[in-house]
Amino acid sequence: MKLKLKLLLLLLFILNHHVDSGSIVKFLPGFEGPLPFELETGYIGIGEKEEVQSFYYFIKSENNPKEDPLLLWLSGGPGCSSITGLLFENGPLALKSEVYNGSVPSLVSTTYSWTKTANIIFLDQPIGAGFSYSRTPLIDTPTDTGEVKNIHEFLQKWLSKHPQFSSNPFYACGDSYSGMIVPALVQEISKGNYICCTPPINLQVGYILGNPITSIEDQNYQVPFSHGMALISDELYELYPYYLLSYWINDETVRNALHVNKWSIGEWERCTHLRLIPYNKDINNSIPYHMNNSISGYRSLIYSGDHDLTVPYLATQAWIKSLNYSIIHEWRPWMIKDQIAGYTRTYSNKMTFATVKGSGHTAEYKPNETFIMFQRWINGQPL
Fold first, then answer.
1. 265 and 133 in contact (C-beta within 8 Å)?
2. Which domains does the chain have, with CATH numbers?
3. Share of the chain above pLDDT 90, in %
4. Which residues are known catalytic residues?
């Protein structure tokens, strides 16, 4: 009897701590009623012994998940949780802006979610970002190039567990510091697809980057950009609802609903790169990756908020110009209901550059306009 009890307890422990799988989330604290979309959360083990546990949020397309594109979304930092993108930029839920009263912050549905036309994996990376963690102390310091290989492995393993999405067109996407990671990841996937005995990833189309960091030279454009811009008011500067996110996601009921392992991390932080994550930035310039991806024929959408001081659109324009590709469609406004939403230019290397009028460093400032831009580009339409 004692042996049977021990075996039962062991089985329950394994089931409760089996991290290399996903769980469907039907309800979330702060949102009334069942979620109006399909959300899955889980961990994928990385490495030979799978000490690294990468946490993800996966949301199926609300349109046609069997055929719609599969997107991977990486937030910047390095070290910012991908739920930043999910709840502030392009996901189907957002935190309701309100004064915190001690209860679980409220969530509301959005009208601008990219999941209206695409399946999206929001991945917490590198280790230490969001809910991703390591079972054992890391021997080697995480690096840009190391993360590229880890993310590639994550995708291969995720697709092996979700084979129904293996034929969907795949796009690597992200913003800010992801500008150093995504171009290298696209090249890594492209090369990996030609290696024997590894399942190919359907990278037949391209990648998307918002306000991407490309090299240290991006900083050279901050002063010229600032010279031509007025400063926003203190009141507007102090209005970001990120503090609500910390209250919401650190609530025990929320972490239980997301199927987060209780023993994985302590208090969740939106961006941990400043203090807690040792990280070696060994990709100094991502332009060569852009060039190689262009040679391979991949489409790309590069967009910039025209009020971004961190990575001014002038810097992005400059490195795109350095590629020396012919211009297919000259600088022109792109419109939403007879209103100028930004400006755009397309190049012979299948690259589209666009500004988003009035937006800052991430899409959260103009999510509706960014969604319309994304929807047109993903469907092969002119902006």
1. yes
2. 2-290 (3.40.50.1820)
3. 51
4. 176, 308, 361
